[in-house]
Amino acid sequence: GWSRMSIGGFHFVTGEFKSHRTFLPDDEYGKALDNFVKGCSDMLITDPKGNIFLGKRIVHPQPDWWYVGGRMMPGESPSSSCSRLLKRELSLDIAPERFRSICYNSMAWGMREQQPKSNGTCDVNIVLTVELTQEEISNIVLDPNEYNDCTWVTAQALLAGDYHPALQYSARALLAANKLAEIRELEKQGNADGKVLEALREYLKLTEDPACGVSPYVLRNQGLNYEGQVHVTKY
User: Fold this and answer.
1) Cis status, amide bond into 78, omega within 30 of 0
2) In whole angstroms, what is the distance from residue 47 CA to residue 67 CA?
3) What pTM was computed for the model?
4) What is the mean pLDDT of each run of 10 residues along the chain (235 residues)?
5) Segment holding 40, helix H or strand E
């Protein structure tokens, strides 16, 4: 997978779109996965201190620490999709207006939940972020069909730890977005050229391309008897 940082993110509707989605039997959905790239909206959820929420997934394609999120439905904006998915996966009601875009990634997975599992699946995931209040955090209820654990980590711990490189890149993108917001605020204040230049250097460092090639992270899940390396390439 690979990603590019997003300064903004907009949802364009041309003409009058009405969703005609319907339930697909497993065999039909499996064929669809073999022929199409799914659009997913995934979230870097933070607390008021900037710590990042990770869920320990128990299903393919990423049965390890991962974003909260999933497949978008036709007609949904990424933020409205995130709102729906947060309700389903964490039992939280969060308005779409609270999300902001961070980056996007291209994913190819060796496994999937649908048969035949070894056919894998491919995604484009749009990464958004939302800050939860302490009250909202106390109301989190994990979907037991998706997760068996959760944790909060600092962005620095995520970057230094044994995590999927897509997660790590998204964490860097989040830090970069926060740094860019800081630069804009300094510009508004005026008479802060030195601070702006220092913050700009930090921003540029955060937006450097990650290392390509084989990632040191390896997806391992003993319960599913699965192991997979991650290869990082440019588009």
Assistant:
1) no
2) 15
3) 0.93
4) 53 96 94 98 98 98 98 97 98 97 96 97 97 98 97 98 98 96 90 89 94 97 97 92
5) strand 38-46
Instruction: Tell the residue number behind the tokens 């008021």, with chain if given.
Output: 48
Let me know: does 111 contact 120? Beta carbons within 8 Å.
Answer: yes
Domains, the chain, in order of start with CATH, read 23-155+210-232 (3.90.79.10)
d(CA 156, CA 177): 15
* Residue 46 CA to its chain's centroid (Å): 12
Quick one: how far is CA 109 from the chain centroid? 15
Would you call 3 exposed, middle or buried from its count of C-beta atoms within 10 A (0-12, 13-18, 19+)?
buried
Q: Return the number of other C-beta atoms located less than 10 Å from residue 114's C-beta.
A: 17
The single-letter code of the amino acid at 8 is G
| Integer Cα distance of 201 and 190 in angstroms | 18
